[in-house]
Amino acid sequence: MGGSRGQRQPALRMFAIEFTQSSLPIVGQGEFDPSFVVSRLGAMTSRMLVAGVIDNMERRDTESGPGYRGRLRDSTGLHMFDIAPFNPELHADAEEILARFERGDRFVVLMMGRSRHYETEDGGVFTSIRSEGFREIDISRYHVWLARTADATMRRIDAHRKSRELDASESSFKSGGIPLDLIPGLLKSKEHYGDVDDSVYEVAVMRAISMSEGIAPPDETPLVEVNVEASPKAPSKNLAGEEATSKAQEAIMQCLASSDGPVDYDTLIRECASAGIVRLTAEEVIDDLRDVQALIQEPEFGFFEIL
Amino acid sequence: MTDEYDTYIDRVLAEVPDADREAVREEFAKYHVQFRIEPEDAVRSIMKRFQKNDTDATIQTRMDSMVSSKKVEKFSELASDDRNVTVEVAVVTYTPRMQKMKTGEEKQIAFGWIEDLPFSNEESTRWDYKDWGNHSANLSPGSIVRLEGVSVNEWNGKRSLNINQSSRVVVLQEGGAVTLPTSDPVDISTASTMEGPVSLVARVVAARPDQIVKKDGSGTIDIVRGRLADSSGQMSFLCWGEFNHEVGALLRFEGANIRRFRDTPEVNFSDRTKIEVFRDAAFPDMDELASQTRASIADIRDGMRGVDITVQIESIETRTFVRDGEERSLTSVRVLDPSGRCKMTVWSPIELESGQVVSVQEARIRAFQGTPDITVDDATQITILDDSPWEKIDPESHVVEATLGELRRNGSRDGIQTEGDVLAIRDDCGIVLRCPECRRVLREGVCADHNVVEGVEDLRLRLVIDDGLATANVVVGRAASEKFLETDMSTIQSRITEEGASGFVQELQNRLFGQRLSIKGRAIVDDRGTMLMADSIVEKSGDPVAIAAEVRERWGVVL
Fold first, then answer.
1. For chain B, which terminus, N or C, has the lower number of CB atoms within 10 Å?
2. Could you tell me the residue ranges of all domains in chain B?
3. Strands A108-119 and A47-62, how do they pair?
4. Closest by alpha carbon to A13, among A139, A117, A148?
5. Which domain holds residue A162?
């Protein structure tokens, strides 16, 4: 515990939608400087505490040994995560979770980890989490996490709204009542993202709160379209059955065809959502296109392209 | 034997031919060893000393040309290693202070700002300077002086001038037109976050003469210490020299300086600070200020002086010791108030009982093991109150709640309760062996101080808790661990012997990861973060409906 390492970064409570929409990495310069991914709401994420249902998980054999990758779904989107070969102390638990996932169990996992990012050749930034610890939690504790994360997100939304009325400078943010921990991130966010519409994050908060209060249990919650431009007051008309499947296939293939490189999972889901297809259907279609019809492939975990 | 002083001795002898070579050498050695002045910088002074009866101006002139000096008009012409520089400057500020030397002794020096091109219309440059030679008489703010034999100092890329003992300061124009850095006065709460020059309007609420004893035994410096207050707070002051104002006076200070002593800001006045009586009928009077100058336990910080505080006595422990052949007594008192609890040390005999409420005047605050304690030098500073300003506090149940972020910001405190989610369980949880002498944890049977010793078994847990905004390292001692785990050390010991230590840590991991804990104890805050020494830990199960309702209310979220 050298003093030069500075202080431990707190684990930010964050919904998937805020993290996956982040595209501003800041890489620490010194040996012990933390790296950050700055969200649109100005959160400087280094360590995070996230939760969600295990959506996918697989073992990966790498040069440095076995590791794991997976997806964690919360009420707003998906987190990509990995468990590194050099964290063998986590592997026993990872194996257990993997085995249960493969048996068909679905359950909620609480996970603490470091924010990471991946830059594509065309400059796109994708985010993921390198796990430092996790465990299965029950629904009641998941709801507590949702409520606390809603709180943390609202605090950032509130600061972000205040910051829009102020000159983008440290002193003006300070005197404008912006919490000190959010000032550097909000200044960086403003510079990088410009004006940010935060209504999508507020929708995430409202959904999380209603789940925590038991108003709408997670399985029955209709999926609101998770689109940056989405307005909470305009719910989409959801399609169903055959029509939905074919519409989803069309949307996915179109999206992949119009892109030069692989497209990430969330973008495909959003693409389907804006065509009025619920998440569950979209996911089934993606799986079907990849595993049954073999029209698309997944060259990099979480990224798809036409085969 | 070549002597490092020879060249310089030759210079002196060339100027003062009848001086004794050995005496000059001794003088150089004295300057070098005792005053830490390089021979080059000492030449001028030593010459003066040996020619003190000879005030012939021509000799002075010749002497000047002897020592190769660099004359510049602008600071920008100076290189970072220039010595023996001559430059004309305007003195902007002059602030004396005590500086600890490498040898450990304290010395009065001064620092301030000077500006080049004093007679020119061109834009001048401002540099810092340090006066190591007590030239205060010639460095009045506002005056224009010629500095001779000064040297350039570069520190962290910033250059400044050192005016040395051997330097000469020639006053070219007396400081009539004072160009103090006039700035609008700030309130005390703003000033307490600053460092450096400041203007203030404040009322004197305490003042008493004091002395600083120079550590090298060369004498004392008369100073005045006291406190200033306004409606935003209060601050200690230290005045170098005379302070001719009564307690209660409302004053305006220009060119004062904020310095930090340990964790506490203090405002310094020198004879260069402009102090004038200020009139403002609306300014809070003494009574009003007195009510708010009382500190609470949550407010006290290491290094504070002149603290008035009211506390309730929890327990008393007196011991006597002998110092300088004299028996003295030391009373250690545990005290509390509604904002927290701490220790109070009284360095003279006093009778106190637990449950009493006392008013303490002019106490000092010293940190012991990271937690600030009230230090009282004389029992007369303590008055036992008949009436308590608050309902009697029950020491058993008295804790003050604080978030991890508040603990981080407010510094070390005892008697607090906080909460956070466990996000890391250190793998050295469990049984440790401690040194029987110093209780330090042994590493492979070895104590860092006492070498190989017979270790004493102890149980402790080490965790990291986090609430999303701040984190803390938590150390849970044996008693609190046993209570929390509902088992005793010997049971854990035999389990670890059978199954190994990692099983125990894994079990803790499974039980505690992500778990909200409520922790009571002592917080120690330093530049590495917050450390909680837990007296008790309790698992907290959150009610999602209640938390969600709270969040909706806090942010006005309408579903």
1. N
2. 6-66, 70-173, 188-293, 304-385, 400-544
3. antiparallel
4. A148
5. 147-220
**Cα distances (angstroms) measured from residue A11 to each of B2, B342, B420:** 65, 31, 11
**Distance between A172 CA and the closest CA of chain B, angstroms:** 16
Eight-state DSSP code of residue A276: T
Whether A137 sits inside 8 A of B554 (CB atoms) is: no
Q: With residue A5 as reference, give the H or E element that holds it.
A: none
Residue B301, phi then psi, degrees to nearest 5: -135, 150
> Domain B70-173's class?
mainly beta
- For residue A229, what pLDDT is reported? 39
CA–CA distance, A234 with A231 (Å, rounded to integer):
6
Q: How many distinct structural domains can be found in chain A?
A: 3
> Which pLDDT score, from 0 to 100, does residue A147 have?
95
One-letter amino acid at B388 equals: S
Task: List CB contacts (< 8 A) between A144 and chain B.
Answer: 516, 542-544, 547
DSSP reduced 3-state for A195? coil
Is A133–B557 a contact, with Cβ atoms under 8 angstroms apart?
A: no
Interchain CB distance below 8 Å, B554 and A151: yes
pLDDT in the model for residue A224: 42
- The verdict on ipTM greater than 0.95 is no
Cβ neighbourhood burial of B452 (10 Å; 0-12, 13-18, 19+): exposed
What are B67-71's contacts with CB under 8 Å, separation 24+?
Answer: B67/B11, B67/B43, B67/B149, B69/B148, B69/B149
Q: State what percent of residues in chain B have pLDDT above 90.
A: 28
User: What is the CATH architecture of B188-293?
Assistant: Beta Barrel (2.40)
Predicted TM-score of the model (pTM):
0.61
pLDDT in tens, A56-112: 899 988 888 899 999 999 989 899 999 999 999 899 999 999 999 999 888 899 999
Architecture of the domain whose range is B304-385: Beta Barrel (2.40)
